[in-house]
Amino acid sequence: xxxxLISMPERFLNEIDExxxxxxxxxxELIREALRTYMxxxxxxxxxxxxxxxxxxxxxxx
Length: 62
Prior knowledge:
single chain, mainly alpha, elongated
């Protein structure tokens, strides 16, 4: 597995660590899950936007 170095405020990192501890997960697991969720939501948003644009174009073309 690849490693990634990121920078963030220490206070934010403390919140991540606390949440991970409450869920009995590692910091890495929590961050991976957050990124998966973000990527999925972004994909859904883009799909919805594409459908809306297609509908607009279809209405314009008759």
